């Protein structure tokens, strides 16, 4: 997808333009094609940026300038990613041991946008092979893929700007060994059908969406712009394997809506909320200051963060404080933190998160290693 088309789609998604007001309910094949098309096009772009398949692509700076290609980018870790290519046999990933006080994770996503493997603080050798591979497999944790092109996504925590050099040092120890190739196709749907063994549960669905193209994808972005804010409050059911037991995980609309947070984690690994509205239901907008409250110490084993994004770009705001976490805040006398979203600095005991006058925005709460069902969010304080 070209940049102009993507920008239009993202703007429509978050602003709910007039064009999007009459989008009909999509069919199951359209919902499935929406995921597959987006993920395939993303992989093609990522492989090109990396210099080929089986080549690691590191982000080395936090995406604070509002131009990151990942929508709703996290500011609490750096990414290491690669399009793994198993067409020439096993591919080996080597990961360093990381200290227990730093979040470090691996996530594998297949070509139908299901998370097939995730782990916090992995280390050692991981071997990727197709599930029907018959040759010799090197030593290591074996990850079998239904397709030729599983996607590996590694997150390495950055606690503060001063901590960045430590994260970069960890990235340099990550190694991927496999035959370098190129990812080329014109039809994302046919490419997936040709290179990935479709799950039994989805047999025949994607074939019905053959011919799905950029224009169809723009329309699906518009549908998501209507459906997501009204029906989704967190990532429950969006990610995880095809047989996930998370509530709503078998609803194809929820799975398709996951593309709004493409390459997100299952809820037992990370709990995300996407907050678009105030407690009274009105859309968050820079014209009015808004204060949120959350416990500083929450029910999780790793860490939390709150990040604000422009609803027009689905990205950060340049030259502005975008993220707060346990490393750059302290609790108040009640054991909570409070954040004020406003144009002007409130100059009080709350933490200031700048927003633009007249512009809609949203914020995402990320809780890593959550006790599912026990995390207290800013929305819980609405009650």
UniProtKB/TrEMBL annotation:
Transmembrane segments: none annotated. It comes from the Bacteria. Residues 271-371 form the DUF1214 domain. The keyword Signal applies. This is DUF1254 domain-containing protein. InterPro entries: DUF1214, DUF1214_C_sf, DUF1254, DUF1254_sf. Keywords: Signal. Pfam families: DUF1214, DUF1254. Residues 54-177 form the DUF1254 domain. Residues 1-20 form the signal peptide. It comes from Vibrio ouci.
